[in-house]
């Protein structure tokens, strides 16, 4: 039997709060819904809606959204901040499972901000953990572990440790998928002990399922684990946990892979059908991908593999289009909120001015004895109003400038998306593909694939930067190989360089590893190299170097071209927003985004003209660990044309 590699599955664990330990979820849902007509207090009704929404997270996503949205609407109308934060937490999980990271991040961060204002420490711990769950679904393992560790530290100081078992289970799950996983048994043992102490059957079931997954990942024979997994499935079914039942089916399929492909496929199908029925799109897609991977290793490949392939492609396209649209809509929403805030500030200023004038008129009627005193007060008030209006006008100008900047940012994102799509449309027109040989078609498709991949990487950099600026997500760096990142950026620009006969010399040591965000760094390298190639004449050269600063804590990268240099008028404003008005084609805006990305990653960027001609762009970023000295590498010619 062909050996199949099991893909990691993170168990999505969100806590249900405000309800006694669950043994019969369906019974609890029925009892809560029966209480709704008798409730007269709006705050109690909002809290009950939020409880129902969280209960339905493990049973039906449609019902989860229905009660979460009702809770949010009611809490906002009665200005109930606790109910609003609870509802946002429920809706964050809904959008997380729907595969919509933009709204999931928006709601989870708003929920965390409200709980921090309220000083609700258990909820701050819970939402911190849920942010880690969201990051795990995006494959950000380092950031996921950081959030879980933070949640574990927060849970140590809680008077009631009801959230701590779930934090420990999530942390154990994430650690088991690291390259050199530690022994997570102590974490799971502590989680089970706390769950037994609390009498929480739900947490005990989840802990046993997590233990089975980590045991399989550690190399224990599947035959020793399968009976325990059967018991978990029966418990999840008996308690009405539809989500955990589907997840348990998927893990059972992974356990059967080395033993029986037929049994594995049967459990994959059960997971697929249950996840689709209950509306868990993320789990449905993952289960189908796992089943498709198994089918493609069978000989001959069953017809069902083709069905799964088409369905996975359709789901991927739907998800990509939906996320792109939501990303643009979310950016427009953020800009619109800024405009509304500016209008509200103007209205407050007018009200203040009107109130001040009334006060001045009343004071003027007091009499001649108080004229001098009132005159002094009037002057002081006038100065205050002038200062307030000047500050408000400055803020309005800044908001208008940011609005223009973000509109141009959208144009950059649209340009990066259009390039691979335009290539594919051009191939389809006129029947070009039919007249190509197999080798030519393969070359063209490889080029389109490279273009699409690099465009998506650039989009990832912009989206991550937007999350840091618009949503307020904390910047969490990871270790990035500078040379690998630079080579990827060079690959993107290689075709244009070859067409102009430009030689690109690479002197970046393999030993330099940065503390950075890989997608944003790739966006920076790609744009600086693209500018250098655009301004370098035919048969010119570009030199890329990287060295350590004297203290060994920062890497300094230089990209030098042999073009005409930068005008002395433009050079001082090269990375300022004012310069974007003089630039064409979006190049000025891209450099401004590069500067903000570098500063987010605790670095610096600058440019200068070379004495021998041409220009050099520099940037510095912190390294993962201080290096005493880097040996100079051999030069590598990346792109040379006669």
TrEMBL record:
Gene3D superfamilies hit by this protein:
1.10.287.130, Histidine kinase-like ATPase, C-terminal domain (3.30.565.10), Tetratricopeptide repeat domain (1.25.40.10)
Residue runs in coiled coils: 328-355
Task: Show the stretches that span the lipid bilayer.
Answer: 352-372
EC number of this enzyme: 2.7.13.3
Give all residue intervals belonging to the Histidine kinase domain.
412-625
Which keywords describe this protein according to UniProt? Coiled coil, Membrane, Phosphoprotein, Transmembrane, Transmembrane helix
The protein's name in its UniProt record? histidine kinase
The uppermost taxa in this organism's lineage are: Bacteria, Pseudomonadati, Bacteroidota, Sphingobacteriia, Sphingobacteriales
């Amino acid at each position: 039997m062909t050996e199949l590699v099991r893909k990691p599955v993170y168990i999505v664990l969100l806590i249900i709060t405000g309800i006694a330990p669950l043994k019969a979820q369906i019974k609890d849902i029925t009892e809560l819904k029966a209480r709704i007509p008798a409730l007269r207090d709006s705050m109690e009704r909002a809290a009950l809606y939020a409880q129902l929404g969280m209960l339905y997270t493990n049973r039906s996503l449609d019902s989860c959204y229905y009660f979460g949205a009702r809770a949010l609407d009611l809490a906002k109308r009665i200005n109930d901040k606790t109910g609003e934060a609870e509802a946002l937490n429920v809706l964050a999980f809904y959008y997380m499972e729907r595969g919509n990271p933009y709204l999931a991040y928006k709601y989870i961060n708003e929920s965390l901000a409200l709980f921090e204002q309220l000083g609700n420490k258990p909820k701050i711990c819970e939402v911190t953990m849920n942010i880690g769950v969201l990051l795990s679904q995006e494959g950000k393992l380092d950031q996921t572990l950081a959030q879980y560790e933070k949640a574990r530290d927060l849970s140590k100081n809680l008077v009631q440790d009801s959230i701590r078992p779930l934090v420990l289970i999530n942390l154990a799950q994430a650690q088991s998928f690291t390259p050199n996983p530690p022994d997570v048994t102590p974490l799971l043992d502590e989680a089970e002990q706390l769950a037994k102490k609390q009498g929480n059957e739900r947490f005990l079931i989840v802990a046993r399922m997590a233990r089975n997954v980590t045991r399989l990942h550690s190399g224990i024979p599947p035959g020793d684990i399968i009976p325990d997994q059967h018991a978990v499935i029966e418990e999840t079914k008996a308690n009405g946990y539809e989500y955990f039942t589907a997840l348990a089916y998927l893990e059972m399929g992974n356990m059967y892979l080395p033993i029986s492909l037929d049994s594995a496929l049967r459990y994959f199908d059960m997971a697929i059908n249950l996840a689709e029925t209950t509306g868990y799109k993320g789990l449905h897609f993952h289960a189908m991908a796992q089943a498709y991977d198994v089918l493609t290793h069978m000989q001959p490949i069953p017809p069902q593999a083709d069905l799964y392939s088409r369905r996975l492609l359709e789901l991927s396209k739907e998800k990509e289009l939906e996320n792109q649209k939501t990303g643009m809509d979310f950016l427009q929403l953020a800009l619109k909120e800024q405009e509304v805030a500016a209008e509200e500030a103007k209205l407050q200023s007018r009200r203040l001015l009107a109130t001040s004038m009334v006060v001045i008129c009343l004071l003027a009627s007091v009499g001649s004895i108080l004229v001098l005193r009132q005159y002094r007060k009037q002057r002081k008030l006038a100065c205050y109003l002038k200062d307030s209006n000047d500050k408000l006008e400055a803020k309005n100008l800044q908001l208008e400038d940011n609005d223009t900047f973000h509109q141009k940012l959208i144009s950059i994102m649209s340009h990066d998306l259009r390039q691979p799509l335009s290539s594919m449309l051009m191939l389809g027109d006129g029947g070009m593909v039919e007249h190509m040989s197999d080798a030519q078609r393969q070359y063209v498709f490889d080029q389109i694939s490279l273009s699409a991949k690099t465009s998506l990487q650039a989009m990832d950099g912009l989206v991550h930067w937007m999350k840091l600026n618009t949503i307020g997500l904390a910047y969490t760096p990871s270790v990035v190989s500078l040379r690998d990142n630079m080579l990827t950026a060079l690959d993107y620009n290689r075709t244009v360089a070859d067409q102009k006969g430009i030689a690109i010399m690479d002197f970046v040591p393999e030993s330099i590893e940065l503390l950075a965000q890989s997608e944003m760094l790739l966006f920076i390298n790609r744009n600086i190299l693209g500018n250098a190639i655009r301004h370098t004449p035919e048969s010119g050269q570009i030199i890329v170097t990287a060295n350590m600063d004297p203290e060994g804590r920062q890497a300094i990268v230089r990209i030098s071209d042999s073009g005409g240099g930068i005008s002395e008028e433009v050079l001082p404003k090269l990375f300022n927003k004012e310069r974007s008005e003089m630039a064409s084609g979006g190049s000025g805006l891209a450099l401004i985004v590069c500067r903000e990305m570098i500063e987010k990653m605790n670095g610096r960027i600058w440019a200068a003209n070379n004495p021998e001609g041409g220009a050099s762009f520099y940037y510095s970023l912190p390294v993962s660990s201080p290096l005493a000295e880097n040996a100079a590498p051999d030069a590598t010619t990346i792109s040379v044309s006669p």
